[in-house]
Amino acid sequence: MFFLLSDPITKLPGIGPSLAVKFGLLSIQTVDDLIGYYPRRWEDLSVVSPVATVLATCPAPPQKVTIKAAIKSISHFRSPYKRMFITNAIAEDASGAMRIVWFNQPYLRTAIKAGETYYLSGPMGNWQNHSALTNPALERATDTPLHSGGLIPIYSETAGISSKVIRRAARHILNTIRHLPESLPSDIVATHQLMPLTEALVNIHFPTSPQNLQRAKQRLSFEELFSVQLGLAFARTNWGELPGQPLLVSNQLLPKFLQQLPFTLTASQLAAIKEIFHDLRRPIAMNRLLLGDVGSGKTIVAAASILAAAKAGGQVALMAPTEVLAAQHYSNLKPLLDKFNLRTTLITGSKKLSSSADIAQGKCDLVIGTQALIQHQVSFKNLNLVIVDEQHRFGVSQRQQLKNKAQIASPHYLSLSATPIPRTVFLTLFSDLDTSILINPPVGRLPIITRLATANNLAKIQLLINREIRAKHCIFVIAPLIELDKTARRSSITSELARLRQLFPAASIATLHGKMPAEEKLSVMQAVQTGEVDILLATSVIEVGIDVPGATVIWIKNAERFGLAQLHQLRGRVGRSDLQSYCFIETPTDDLETSERLKSFIHINDGNKLAQMDLVMRGPGAFFDTRQSGFLKLKIANLMDEDLIKLTHQTAKHIIRQDPTLKNYPELKSRLQLPVLVHAE
């Protein structure tokens, strides 16, 4: 029987409606879904060992062993204790005999027969004072091994769907496949010596050798990344340079702007401003990402961009992910822009400082807000620059809705991001954007001293915090939860508030978390900014963009609950002035892996290096919000494989140079994987 890739999996023998529902929990509904459901790892059970060799290694044999032996005797009974069903057998090959035992597998009464030879794969254990192979996978030696005797695929599972069930279904389909249509152009397959698609799919599920497994991974990873890179190259060529409104940016504007600043910009900040001004002057819509580590000074670059767009007669919209951050942008930008007679307003879910009519009539030059900016009541007279802060925290449609507020088809677009992104992820996700990178922190910033907080140094930390409070500096304490959890192993706002009041009875302590009303959150942050609060106890709601120059200490509870990139973002809430700042991390766990990870955080202050480590340990989802429509859906490609990323990038560019509209590659065009694109949304 042959199958179409579009056939439902219920066409497979043994998969009825009930099992199909369980497969659906793994997003497997069709034959195509099933063969595209790649193993998460492979267990090497390819070495078939003589029984005597296995017994000679007891009591410390390899984790799992495989033998090929005949069943000489077999018995089934229930244990006196707990009435557990037990199958006990003796298996024998030319080298010797050994005991086999299965627990709670009553189907073996009919599945296993004395006198037959089987492959048996499983761990060695001890039963009734004898070394025994326990709960091994069992297959007749006359059959092609599926669960033993090779590189065995292990899949992500769900209730009722084990790796064994997936293996049987995948083997049934792959046995019927003779030749799938090649999904890559033949010249690419030949040039890069890629394994043909059908062979790759067979070997990714049931590799015939370690070498063929690697070739299958290479082929399928290439295809995934190539699809992404081709989508980016296609978008860049066909949509990347859209007609825009050229802005008259005076050559005198930058010197005047710099005169108003009480500090000196870094070389990379100046370079970024000049790149943006150049873009704004062109008749092509700017499409630029401003990428910088925490505290690198992105806001002042954005301020120069706002000034240029507004002085050219247009309006600017700046969208931030939270009300707290939007309000902070307002309080930071307004005093500076007031010096140039720009009118700045704020719109959030709880605040609206100007009327919709004022904005629509062009009486507001800069409108700062949350996603409240995309409400239908908000319209602009001449929106020529859209700025999105931490763009990955918004859905694609939300960003597009804001851009649609412009009267022209393509307003200039500037995205800000402080999320530490490894170079490999950056090359994959943002090659469709022009990029300005802020390399160095502003002049005068001191490295943040990071230490592990323990019972041994608690007294020293307490003394340091009291000293900082006396100096009128602000302290942040971060707890992962609002309420105390049942295990009481994780800190919460509730538990830490009581503890902090004990440790610092004279301090003014405020709390901040996501469930507070918006007005209350803004009120708390205002009190923090004005120095009325000594200690701010918060959840990670302050992770993004909170700028309190007088904050000098951050104490992160349950640091093991956060990724390295997120810890770095939190650490970046202090050290935003020329004051020496400190970060203390605390964890109740003594897990070795966690300890090593936190040691890395203590010794590394480079966000990109930490992000690279985070990518290895936690995967790309650590960097991007789950709402991020269009985020890479990679099943097998490794974002650490910079060589393959570069290769697919170059290959995609070559294809697009030859055929910009992919007229000769209709199949490729239909399967483009477009990640976060600014113009193709």
Please characterize this protein's 3D structure:
The structure is a single chain. With 681 residues, the protein is of the alpha/beta class. Helix content is 36%, strand content 18%. The longest helix is centred in the N-terminal third of the chain and has 29 residues, at 210-238. Strand 21, helix 19 and strand 22 (582-585) form a beta-alpha-beta unit. The protein has 23 helices and 22 strands. A 7-stranded mixed β-sheet has the order 6-7-4-3-2-5-8. It has a 7-stranded parallel β-sheet with strand order 12-13-11-14-15-10-16, sandwiched between helices. The protein is globular and about 95 Å long.
Counting copies of identical and different chains, the oligomeric state is single chain
Largest sheet: 7 strands, mixed
Count of separate DSSP helical elements: 23
Q: What are the low-pLDDT stretches, counting only 5+ consecutive residues below 50?
A: 622-631, 675-681
| Protein structure class | alpha/beta
Average of the residue pLDDT scores: 86
- Side by side, the strands of the main sheet go 6-7-4-3-2-5-8
Key descriptive features of the protein:
seven-stranded parallel sheet; 23 helices; alpha/beta; seven-stranded mixed sheet; 681 residues
